[in-house]
Prior knowledge:
By secondary structure, this protein is α/β, with parallel strands linked by helices. The chain contains 29 helices and 21 strands.
Amino acid sequence: MDLVPALEEPLKQPLKSVLGPATAKVMAEHLGLHTVGDLLHHYPRRYEERGQLTHLADLPMDEHVTVVAQVADARLHSFASAKAPRGKGQRLEVTITDGSGRLQLVFFGNGVHKPHKELLPGTRAMFAGKVSVFNRRLQLAHPAYELLRGDSEETVESWAGALIPLYPATAKLESWKIGKAVQTVLPAAQEALDPLPPALREGRGLLPLPEAILKIHRPHTKADIAAARDRLKWDEAFVLQVALARRRHADSQLPAVPRRPEPDGLLTAFDDRLPFTLTEGQQKVSKEIFDDLATEHPMHRLLQGEVGSGKTMVALRAMLAVVDAGGQAAMLAPTEVLAQQHHRSITEMMGELAEGGMLGGAEHATKVVLLTGSMGAAARRQALLDLVTGEAGIVIGTHALIEDKVQFHDLGLVVVDEQHRFGVEQRDSLRGKGKQPPHLLVMTATPIPRTVAMTVFGDLETSVLDQLPAGRSPIASHVVPAADKPHFLARAWERVREEVAGGHQAYVVCPRIGDEEDDPKQAGRKKSPEDEAEKRPPLAVLDVADQLAGGPLQGLRVEVLHGRMHPDDKDAVMRRFAAGETDVLVATTVIEVGVNVPNATVMVIMDADRFGVSQLHQLRGRVGRGSAPGLCLLVTEMPEAGAARQRLNAVAATLDGFELSRIDLEQRREGDVLGQAQSGARTSLRVLAVIEDEDVIAEARQEATAVVTADPELQRLPGLRTALDALLDEEREQYLEKG
């Protein structure tokens, strides 16, 4: 992060290599470490105390581990094999112990000679390898090891600290080799440029950066580690928040056309025809949005709302306000099913107000057009024409809206639904279609913990809708343990029949489609441990639909819906379901967002353990949308004690999406949230944990905003500018800019 000449030195260069060329190569290829600075910021994952060993009793299967233990005994066996037919094969079995458990090490062939001489009973060493099982016992085959002798000068020196750092390692490079490499470059830490303004650092009692780097790699006490981590967390939080604060500052300098609705225009006419009053939350959030729209700088707002909290209504009123003010509004949806659904529900809500230019259209009416990739040529031409002439005030579409051919008369507002499904570039290219930057409203029904909102969407102001509209019913959720209690599953299908008999409808959700061309890449892939444990692929829509129609739901009208159907077929299925002509819809997660059928009251999720926590919450939000109470049944074959069941129990126990998103995040680690999921790059956060370090992130955001307001170009803070440049290499800058 703090790349200055000494730290920018490559680990591998032709003339003088900081490390041996082989080591440098492995570091670059397997750990992404290229410079001295990268290596100094490769922090230990944890520390071993000299007297206290890793518990061998807790070793994880199939993971690459480092343990510190003592040799209990070592035996050399001879055996016959294809390679050594005359009983000349040699196998060395070494048992090591740490007081909590014992572990077998095995060495074969020529590899036995060195360990046979060195690993004598009583010897202490660090061992690294992959844990496997042989004859129902845990073992490490051919582990790498490093003896911990008290006499050799170098070993005493390198383990002089009471704490042995253990680094994130790979099979190709053990933790202690990384440790030795770090020792080699540690002197360069003295030249690290400090990104924190001195007043901030001193005011918070944080260590200077060189000292923090030294202490995290060579701590003498646990207090050293804590002080170093506190300091390095601040660096990460602060530099990231400065980057976001600069984005917000730059955005606030951009020009935009203020959009203020006419006093008695389209918005007023729409509000007058609403059969209900808006919730307090909807009114409050609408006011925040209208205030933003009235300014001369583009709005950048994130609208978070629980499933079913009425986000679409808030977004529609914002779009109508912009149309009133002479502009156009575009809504970007991630799938055709969702775009069609939005188009249908918005034209229904608007009635004759959506019939601009048509007979029977109201006085203030506008046109609402749909634009998707699978539309016929004539319909598409007409839609494009309505956009370029300004005839259509509102357009709803998929990424087809982003194509070069699509031109607007005067684009004033872009609403992005379900942001996490959209590539950053897509959002930006739509924003580029306005004469001046349009206002931007991003909606998500996946509740995002406050800290993640501050980190991932830190360039957006946030509004939260957390009240459900009147008339929404609570959803009861239950886990159905199909393997332990098959009669529970039978009862689940009875419940579906009861709901249908009462005039309602049901969803059955499966993880897979089942026409077996799903994904050729998947076929050859190694199975996950859960798959191995279950010895069966996830349940599939096509199979389950057949089994239900011929079995427990015989006589009911069962249809299927999945992502590879032709768009017209998908639309026809959804229309029949919405019209009540289908009793049970067996579907993949295409129904996860935005599908609104108030008469559907029960959802059965098959193999529920295959879905993430937030995804289950999203799916469940499809029922209980009318006046009848909703029921969600989470079917699983996972054992009661496992982590998968705990996850499902958590979902069944609360309807609070923010609480669930916290659980989800704690289980998935931030990497998913900030790293690959967003930019495809490795997450830049090494010591900062988004969930646990909420206070640091909130304080860093305040400090960053103050620093950027006082000095937008950071001219007085060269160290901070250097750190920022390192964080925002080209790709990352692009990502933050648009993200």
